[in-house]
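ENTRY TYPE: paired fold submission
RECORD: A
CONTENT: sequence, then structure tokens
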Amino acid sequence: MSIGKSNRRSRSIFAVVALAVFMTNLDLWIVNVAFEDIRQSFPGSSLAHVSWVLNAYAVTLGALLVVAGRAGDRYGHRRTFLLGTAVFTLASLACALAPTLDVLIGARVVQAAGAAMQLPSSLALLVAGVPPEGRVRATRAWASVGGLAAAAGPVLGGLLVQASWRWVFLVNLPIGLVGLVAGRRTLPHAAAQPRTALPDPVAAVLVVVSVGSLVAGLLQGPSWGWTSVGTLSLLFVAALSAAVVVRRCLTQAVPLVEPALVRARGFARANAALFVFSIAFAIMLVSNALWCQQIWGYGPLLTGLAMAPGPALVPLTTIASRRLVERVGPGALATIGSLLFAAGLAWRALAASPQPSYLVDMLPAMVVGGIGVGLALGTLMAAGTTSLPNASAATGSALLNASRQVASGVGVAVLVTILTAWKPPAAVAAYQASWWVATGLGLAAAVGSALLHASRRPAGEPAPVLAQATS
């Protein structure tokens, strides 16, 4: 194959993969802007009930990422990617047509399963289809797609919700169809590895049960009572399921989480800091969307525009700080980022007013917080993956992404618990309380980040491509 044809093929593969990754990442952002409109379209639905539109997706995606990644190794990444794209697209149609809230939540679970099949295989296909000398550049571009989706998501979501929240899901249909047609023609037929064993699927299901029960307990606690039989039963199921997951990880031949990864100090610390940071990030993201619409009375488009500066700064800051991490180290950079993120949340808690005051209240917090996220999030991801040998980098990266998704579900549950525990006349105080909680979590992430140190890798072994892409 000539160099020109090789380059064209590489660009085509990247275009297909990037389109699918953009679609799944975009979905995370635009649904937040549509949250209030979804609640209003199903009269009588509580905030806790509607929050499962976000939680069901995050928890399912987090639990299935590792299993889906190994399934791609076993059955072929092309097949897994195309199947995931088809599932995600069909589930998006089901979301758009959902006649009830419960049907919408169920469709979101299926949508997350499709995304879990897409994301790990997308990078594997890109690496397989790009010449070795272009892989680092291609994977950095792959990693930046999520940033572009974050920057475009709030505004695009606001525009779509102007028509109906259902367009938030319908927009996935043409993207998914184009990805399927182009993918069948373009994506490489990477060799499957039929002897690859799948991680323990029972443990993956139990993760969903555990986190789902925890989230349900947090959401129902204010209305059922924290000492009620129902709330305590949910929390007991969450704890018991988590204990069984740990037990199976220690005893199964192919565990969901390899104990060696947990024992890797750098990985464990980075994952813990990332988990706490992601809880705070979810609180910030959803609370801003709800505050703009419920307290300030903004429409969806104005809400999206108000939220846009923070996400737009994240990829810019991440790119600008690439060399800074080499000078100060990942621990110091993630600590600075976490402190800035916490400062932005504290500003919101102090400056919040029921009268719209965007330039004084929200904009400074979005700017400072966006810079903080740009410094901390990618750095913690890279610190976790680069602390592992190359053989474990892909699994470690999947676990870090899974941790982020699970933390997002917990964060939304914490926010809704706080908002529903306060009576409507004290709505402003409830939001302020949620921002103080998130500030504390941001400070805890800063402490965890400060414990990180330069990763040590076996002599002569280069950093994994994926880690380089996310740094």
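RECORD: B
CONTENT: sequence, then structure tokens
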Amino acid sequence: MGDVQPWPGSGHPGYPAQQAQPMAAQAQPMAQMRAAHTDRDRTVDVLKAAYAEGRLSAEEYSDRFDAANRAQTYGQLAQLVADLPAGPVVTPMAAPMAAPMAMPVPPTFLPPTRPAPNNGLAISALVFGLLCVPSVGTLAIPAVVTGHLARRQIRQTKESGDGMATFGLVLGYLSLAGWSLLLLLGAVAFSAHGG
């Protein structure tokens, strides 16, 4: 794992009491990058989980917690959790060819991914479905058509909006059924009065 070593804190059995050695800037440029408050918070979350699971004693947790709040770089944070599950392993940007491959950074320490955008037809289906009741059902057919098209596109593109498309479909079908029933009852009433 390159120069990132497990936390050499005092009182930890198996590790001598020593200060963490700084990493060479050329071998681990990412390890020298300045850490933000959110990076420290994520490291503390890993430490909390390790303490709750019994991987760290109270003293080890306290020492590492204090060190995480003082850490200035990714490398310092990585050293605190290198011997714990889900701890970050700094991946070098330009590691020397002879250096061993570092493991990728766990998902816990990656920036959040952006959710998939909503499908435009799904939004249209929902709007048509909501508007079809006050508009005497004239928008029920567009709600049903766009709802089916949106669901087909969503299956292919993996976009968001399946719930909106389904809701627009349901409203469209309910509106069609309601207005059809109303027209049928009107026709029956007209024929009863006319006959």
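NOTES ON RECORD B: Residues 60 and 163 are 47 Å apart (CA to CA). The chain is about 50% helix and 0% strand.
STATUS: closed
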